Amino acid sequence: MMGLGSAIGAGLFLGSGVGIAAAGPAVIVSYILAGIMIIFVMRMLGEMGAALPASGSFSHYARIGIGEWAGFTMGWLYWFMLIMVLGVEITGASSIVNSWIPAVPQWVIALVFVTFFAVVNLAKVANFGEFEFWFAALKVAVIVAFLVIGVLLVFGLLPGTEPVGTTHLFGDGDGFAPNGIAGIAAGLLAVAFAFGGIEIVTIAAAESRDPERAIATAVRTVVWRISMFYLGSIAIMVLVLPWTVAGSTDDSPFVSVLDVAGIPYVSGFMELVVVVALLSAFNANVYGTSRMAFALSRGGDGPAALSKLSHTGVPRNAVLLSVFFGFVSVLLNWLLPDTLLEILLNAVGSALLAIWIFVVVAQLRLRPRFEREGVLTVRMWAFPYLSWFTLAMLGAFIVLMLFDDAARLQLLSTLVLFLVITGIGFVWQRRTRQRRARQAQ
């Protein structure tokens, strides 16, 4: 449920509109390709997670499979990405609530939300898990209802509606891919962001009662459910709405579809659900950032203060660091209330691609070791062929993005960020080794 809850957030409810605006109805192609890829990546991550559960997840696997520098870089790159995602979630939720109560400034609403979830995350982890379970359940139930209503709309089975057929699917005269391959490439950033969050199931492994069994079960089921929810929802959007309407970032495409259904109060209720979904994902990402910082620090790749636990077993300093950046996002809400969401949505897609590439490389190198040790309970299909195929898909995504100006700029900025973090890692690890050598002497 944590995997579902963290993945069903801004990427689906708000980011889907960004993808449709970029690619038109052809965004379905982007989601299918990304869906196949994320299933393979999660299978590989689940294989490593079930064999060797670790709170640092792919950062730990990169360290032991590739090298210390890779563990440092992947961990802090993921932390940085989730910090940006925190801004996405809180900005989306506070902007919707601000439309309900315009007298209250958006940054004040965001401040209240961040403060509340700071308290939730500083409590014992069992309370956090219970909280996320029920909110994830609500999101899943609502998406199922949305899919049912959408199918009824497509076939004109609701009172006062006519079958829409495939008119909108082919762009209302603009074609299935009105912006061509470049548009599909531009939409891939939003698509990659949308699937982000599902990997939290392996980050949470160290705090589950039976990590090996929990990860194996989650990996076998959650990726298929996520794919069904995402592909089903996107298909409904591009069938029911003209792509120019569905691609509007002013409203959630979910709300626009329910407005077409004409069911009283449903669109208003959907807005409330969107807020709950965004806040739930924000809460889960505070958890994810704090646990990643905690794991990195325990491994010597971060300040020792972040590795300290409270009496309830919560890495309090790591949580407070994440919450601090939540407050930074509140400040950005005040400075850039209208443009922050778009900026942040475009800032995380290629960072995920970099992380997934390292997951694949680590799995290729660790699989023989796990086979020798006899610890494999989850296995990647058709190893090593599908692993190499996934790596080729990631490379193809990058090539496609090079044809789009905005995507190319994002790839360049991610490369710069990657090199900066790697450089910091080399300096940090060198000083750590020197300090340990002095202590040993």
Task: Describe this entry's structure for a reader.
The protein has helices spanning 2-7, 10-13, 15-23, 27-51, 58-65, 68-100, 106-122, 125-154, 180-195, 200-203, 211-240, 243-246, 253-261, 266-298, 316-335, 340-345, 349-373, 385-401, 405-440. With 441 residues, the chain is mainly α. The chain has one domain (2-440): Amino acid/polyamine transporter I, CATH 1.20.1740.
> Any idea what the CATH superfamily is called?
Amino acid/polyamine transporter I
Report the structural category.
Answer: mainly alpha
Major beta-sheet overview:
none
Strand content: under 5%
Rg result: 21 Å
The top level CATH class name: Mainly Alpha
| Helix run count | 19
The SSE string, one letter per element, is HHHHHHHHHHHHHHHHHHH
Question: How many strand segments?
Answer: 0
Q: Quick one: overall form? A: globular
Helix-residue proportion = over 70%
What is the number of domains?
A: 1
Question: Could you tell me how far the N terminus lies from the C terminus, measured between alpha carbons in angstroms?
Answer: 49 Å
What average pLDDT do the residues reach?
83
How are the elements arranged and paired?
Elements (H helix, E strand, L loop, with lengths): L1 H6 L2 H4 L1 H9 L3 H25 L6 H8 L2 H33 L5 H17 L2 H30 L25 H16 L4 H4 L7 H30 L2 H4 L6 H9 L4 H33 L17 H20 L4 H6 L3 H25 L11 H17 L3 H36 L1
Quick description:
The protein is mostly helical and about 450 residues long.
List keywords for this structure.
Amino acid/polyamine transporter I, 75% helix, mainly alpha, 441 residues
